[in-house]
Amino acid sequence: MLDLMNQSQSICTSFDKQSEKEKSESRHHLSASISVARFLLRLGLPFRGHDESQSSTNRGIFLELLRWYGDIDRDVGSIILENTPTNEMMCFPNIQKDIVDACAKETIKAIIEDLDGDFFGILVDESKDISHEEQMTLVLRYVNKEGKFIERFVGIVHVSNKSAMSLKKAIYSFLSNHSLSPTQIRGQGYDGASNMQGELNGVKTLILNDCPSSYWIHCFAHQLQLCDDLAVTNILNIVGASFKHRDLLRGHQAKKLEEFLKSGELHTRRGLNQECGLQRPDDTR
User: Which residues does UniProt assign to the signal peptide (predicted)?
Assistant: First the structure.
């Protein structure tokens, strides 16, 4: 029998206790989802599965790893997935995206703190994604407090216009949103596109006008890609134009393959060491 004069047995106290219990379970549940998401983000693994229904044998890495987490920790297992109300499962795609966005913000915050207001260089490139929307990627390069050279990818920005002025504004806007000033730029690295390296109206010239110390270099990775494309194209032209050259190349390839098999550097198995034709490189700027 309840003692209505006893404050510890009142309805309000019972509700408060239940509320604290629910809050604690929600925190543990959210913590488990965040831990799984951080693991997948660190390894660059996909979250979703093709079939995430309860009858599926593979519901995707996120849900399967969350279930495994619950199997090894019974306290967590009792409050996740099917053991929690549908509206509190914290594993639906929109919740996963919110967790990823939060992790991205914390990661960029840590990078900015590591930069500690010092000078930095920028690497910028733009290309179309699978939906044909133009996107610009931004990378920061700097020397941290320990004197180590650091290169960090910090974001992707949607750009509706590929003009030099629009790209410059997008770069400045991104830096401003993260409390960075263009006057701190000491280096620029772009590909060979005219809107990026143009001497009169390119992005590098516009930024140099604002910050004369932001020296520009043509991205070495892009230069290497151009050299590779040219070399492969020349090889294809030489080999493809002559049956004699093709036979010589195949004979040399077969001889090398035989040597590797004898030395144990290569192994024989069905589908291995098959002769493949060279493909022409994709167009690049």
Answer: none
Say which CATH topology domain 112-218 has: Nucleotidyltransferase; domain 5 (3.30.420)
* Residue among 25, 36, 23 nearest 78 (CA): 25
Helix (H) or strand (E) holding 153: strand 149-158
Of residues 114 and 241, more confidence is placed in 114
Q: How far is CA 105 from CA 101, 113, 155, 205, in A?
A: 6, 12, 10, 31
Q: What is the pLDDT of residue 1?
A: 47
User: What pLDDT is recorded for position 52?
Assistant: 76
Percent of the chain residues past pLDDT 70, beyond the cut? 76
**How are strands ordered across the β-sheet holding 185-190?**
149-158, 134-143, 120-128, 185-190, 215-218
Spatial CA neighbour of 194 closest among 204, 186, 185: 204
Convert the pLDDT of each residue in 60-78 to its tens digit.
888 888 888 887 877 777 7
d(CA 179, CA 227): 38
The token duo for 125 is: 């490139």
Q: How many CB atoms lie within 10 A of CB 84?
A: 16
Neighbours of 8 (CB within 10 A): 8
- Structure-model confidence comparison of residues 12 and 39, the more confident one: 39
- Structural contact between residues 122 and 188, judged by C-beta atoms closer than 8 angstroms: yes
